[in-house]
Amino acid sequence: MQLSQLINAGYDVPVEGVTADSRQVRPGYLFAALPGNKVDGNSYINDALMHGASAILAKTGTKLPAGASATLIESENPRKELAHIASEFYRIQPEVIVAVTGTSGKTSTVSFT
Questions:
Q1: How do residues 64-87 score in pLDDT, each as one tens digit?
Q2: How do residues 6-21 score in pLDDT, each as one tens digit?
């Protein structure tokens, strides 16, 4: 759900920044509690709230702690929603992205280019 869609969906959330790392949350940030292979982002919701998160993006069915003032944005696919929100928030995207891969010659190729 893009930032503009959040507003259209009835979420009136002032967002100053977007992160999936609770240690980087500042007042007004949206924290994305993403499910992971080893650790679930929901484990860091309290930390994000203590740092001032104004919104939490999490998997559908997530509950915020009692008394939390942040807006909970639920999604079946929070990782995809984070990508859309980040692209809307940061707007500027490169026109061209190039990658050099392989076993050898990457540094030389990049230097020559």
A1: 999 998 999 999 999 998 988 888
A2: 654 566 677 889 999 9
Q: In whole angstroms, give the CA distance from residue 30 to residue 26.
A: 9
- Residue 46's φ and ψ, nearest 5 degrees, are -60, -40
Task: State both tokens at 3.
Answer: 């930032």
Global confidence as pTM: 0.75
Q: Which residues contact 29 (CB under 8 A, 6 or more apart)?
A: 15, 16, 17, 18, 19, 48, 51, 52, 53, 54, 55
Contact between 42 and 15 (Cβ < 8 Å): no
Q: Which fold has domain 3-112?
A: 3.40.1390
State the Cα torsion 74-75-80-82 to the nearest 10°.
Answer: 0
